[in-house]
Amino acid sequence: MKNNMLKGSIVKTIVIFALPIMASALLQYSYNLIDNIIVGRYISEDALAAVGCIGPINGFIIGTALGLTGGFTIPVSQKFGAGDKRAMNLYAGSSITLSLMIGVAIVIIAHIVSNPILRLIRTPENIIELSSAYINILYFGVPFQMLFNNFTSICRAVGDSKKPMMFIIVSVLTNLLLDIFFVGVLSFGVEGAALATVISYGVAALLSGVYVLKKQPVLSIKKGDLRLNFRVSWEQLKLGIPVSLQFTITSVGSMILQSAINGFGSTAVAAITAAGKVEQITNIPMSALGVGNSTFVAQNFGAGNYKRIIASVKKILVLDLIICVICSAVLILAGPYIVRLFIENPSAEIIGYSKQYLYTIGGCYSLVSLLYVFRNTLQGLGFTYANTIAGAGELVGRLLVSYCFAGVFGFAAVCFAGPVAWLLADIPLIILYSRVKKHKLLLQA
């Protein structure tokens, strides 16, 4: 169950650890995927556009929340690598309490800001009520999502990436059955799809919580560990806030870009929604390897294995570049056909928009490999401010496209927003890693 990352083959260790994370990510992705397919086929094209339109807002609020948990559990990995079990349990317990408290606060804030943001990004009038109905139910699941993400992050921090996958399987099956029942049978519309997602996240949080607190063999979290300790909590917040800011800044850029897309009408929104789901699938292998490498780096940093960290970056980067070539081929060759899963009898205009987007993204996908490798490596080392810097680079890229080029080049500029954002995030990350490697790691190796 526990994957020893402190010795043995680097690539084999990270890949074996990352495979359950890939499977888990696919399953988590299916939450929204199932909603999109059922909404698009059982309700209407406008309903699909409405659900897709809230993606950037959802990323802004939920992504910001989940980014915190990613930072909270970095010390858990580092203390595990150092063999300090007492501190490991203390950090794990603190992260659980912080996640619950922040999750509840975010529910309140999200319901205040979501509708004004929908207006701000120029959501088309024919879908704004549907978008609002969907998103305001969805946000009741934020505390469950934060707890579940935190529990799975704790498991992965101690080398356990398999058990979280089992909980997600149960949760996804729950979501699928409830989606069909609420939307297909009871005709609850987009509200039914959102309710199904909230309930399924509640199931995932419950199962993973029982496992971490009662059954996980490496952990022994006591009631006292769940009490907030100012020193511990402040240390975790200092790590979590920069990661969260990365999600926040990136999501602001996505909302600005969504505003530009919305200007092309609901047909373009539906096309980007469907094509974006295809892109997200191909992101999963590189994202999972990034999470695996982050855990690997954190554990080996705690154990003082600095040369092993440097070797892992080189090897995982090569592996990621190979994977991105395969993913690019999938986007270009198979992507337009996968888009048809989301919409029954899609118009020629929707297919045209989707192809243009997928072909552009597919041609620039190597930039994503660099982003995942260097961002997650720096995060594992505890340099989480790098996430914020990368997020700022992505924001600048999307701002340039939305305000400077969309009016001139039209929909083509929207398609290049992602590649431009990745490039402007990669440059500072590579520079930061080079500096950290020179001044922090090699001097101690």
Spatial extent as radius of gyration: 21 Å
The portion of residues assigned to helices is over 70%
Largest sheet: none
Whole-Å distance between the termini? 30 Å
| Secondary-structure element pattern, one letter each | HHHHHHHHHHHHHHHHHH
Q: Please work out how many helical segments DSSP would assign.
A: 18
What overall form do the CA principal axes indicate? globular
Low-confidence stretches: none
The beta-strand count equals 0
Alpha-beta content class: mainly alpha
Question: What descriptive keywords fit this protein?
Answer:
single chain; 445 residues; mainly alpha; globular
Structural notes for this entry:
Helices cover 84% and strands 0% of the residues. By secondary structure, it is an all-alpha fold. The chain is globular, with a radius of gyration of 21 Å. The chain starts with 9 loop residues before the first helix and ends with a helix. The model has no long low-confidence stretch (mean pLDDT 82).
How are the SSEs placed, and which strands pair?
Blueprint: H1 10-42, H2 45-53, H3 55-72, H4 74-82, H5 85-120, H6 128-138, H7 142-157, H8 163-185, H9 190-215, H10 223-226, H11 230-262, H12 266-303, H13 306-339, H14 348-363, H15 366-380, H16 385-409, H17 411-415, H18 417-441
